[in-house]
Here is the input.
Amino acid sequence: MTKQISELALLTPSQMNDIDREAAKTTPVIQLMENAGWAVTREILKRYKPCSVLVLCGPGNNGGDGYVVARLLAKAGWPVYVTAIAKPKMRSDVARVAGQWTGTVISNSASYIEKVGLVIDAIFGAGLNKALDLEITNLLRKAKHVVAIDIPSGVHGETGQIMGYAPHAELTVTFFRAKPGHYLLPGREYVGELVVKDIGISSNTLSKTSTRCWLNEPGLWKIPTHEITDYKYSRGIVSIVGGSQMTGAAKLSAHAALNTGAGLVHIFALGSADCYSASSPCFIVDKDSLEIALQDSRRKIWVCGPGLLPEEVNEILPKLVAAKVKIIADAGVFQSNQSELLKGASIITPHIGEFKRVFGDIEEDKVSAARLAAQQTGCVVVLKGADTVIASPDGRVAINQHASSQLATAGSGDTLTGIIATLLASGLSEWESACAGVWIHGEAGFLCEHSWPTAEDLAQNLGNARDNAAR
Ligand SMILES: NC(=O)C1=CN([C@@H]2O[C@H](COP(=O)(O)OP(=O)(O)OC[C@H]3O[C@@H](n4cnc5c(N)ncnc54)[C@H](OP(=O)(O)O)[C@@H]3O)[C@@H](O)[C@H]2O)[C@@H](O)CC1
Ligand SMILES: [K+]
Here is the structure.
């Protein structure tokens, strides 16, 4: 079922802090902690048979949730041990819930941790911003089956980076809204199954923080569906610059555009026009000059870069920019330290290597790097990877998890440009086209589930993938 945009919000740890503070005005923190502990316990009871449990409790509220889980599991008859990794502050809410634990407390759990059936990581939450100390790291290394409360301790809640060490959880239960670090790599690989639970914080508190980051799912955007009044120009025209030597890229992009529903696809061939004409009767291969092609005011959407040599980009891209058409720029446009070249494009789609070539290092923070590049160029930036980040010049960011390794095939990027171009030609905004295009691309991969698809196979699934995106 399509989610509401507010449900897709991802909150940075500092935004989550603001929400916690706001929520505490109406619900006491100790009650929220109790609700959080209940939520985690229910998820454990759903998935695990009764077994011995070691709960590792930190000094803060994450530890407080852990004490609640310990009490509830013990009440359910499970053998439960608690280790206080650090003592809570005196008279704090955490100290109060810790005081309600009347079971076994183990001060040195190193010899137990390997033997218990389940370890609950309630050491630190998503706000952790420094590496775990060596003693905690050595302890966690021995844990076999881990359930993490909020986030596995050691995963940075904002960037998904691992600060020294983090356990690989089988299940992570977080509260109210997920954080970027749950979905960004490498953090995503440590989170295991992610469950987001309501613990009684009203959605209205979201208005107290300005959400700038979302999970990329339907609901963040809306795809146009078939209309009885559709005709080819209303579905949109996509024009693709075809390289003189590497012709495969533009063909794949053009196939993807047609299969995603473009009404008309032109290839402006810089050479090899016959080769483009021969590859599909559905492509219209331009015979005239670029100037004449650009005089057709219906041709507002252009793909530039796939299969182009640097000299071809340098000749064509400035002309497209001068004509004020909307440009999806990829591949050949990414030249060393040449971010200026991209100004005037609408959407750029670099993978990490291309991104670094143009903009420099990302310094382990994909979201900030993509956001900065979007501000610098004025383009929507699609920073491609297994955790693609889409950033708009106005600061909005989406993180995509709807993708599989099946997309890691030659020509997959060309396919993505064709999809995004089609959505842009259908009237969606740059931001929506980029986000929805990335999701549809991922969906096409999932529809090929039991094979090793080529980019052509992906293209075959794009119609269905688009329909699924519109449901
Ligand atoms: N979201 C919600 O609505 C609700 C959330 N709840 C739960 O609260 C959790 C967030 O709680 P929290 O802010 O207390 O953070 P948590 O990570 O538990 O502790 C930080 C403490 O540890 C200390 N500290 C020591 N070493 C440190 C180190 N290396 N790195 C960082 N800190 C270190 C640090 O000391 P300081 O550095 O400030 O001196 C500070 O005192 C959240 O994960 C969720 O489980 C629910 O209970 C209620 C509703
Ligand atoms: K944790």
About this structure: The chain has a mean pLDDT of 96. The domain at 232-470 is CATH 3.40.1190.20 (UDP-N-acetylmuramoyl-L-alanine:D-glutamate ligase). Residues 29-47 form the longest helix (19 residues). The CA atoms of residues 182 and 188 lie 5 Å apart.
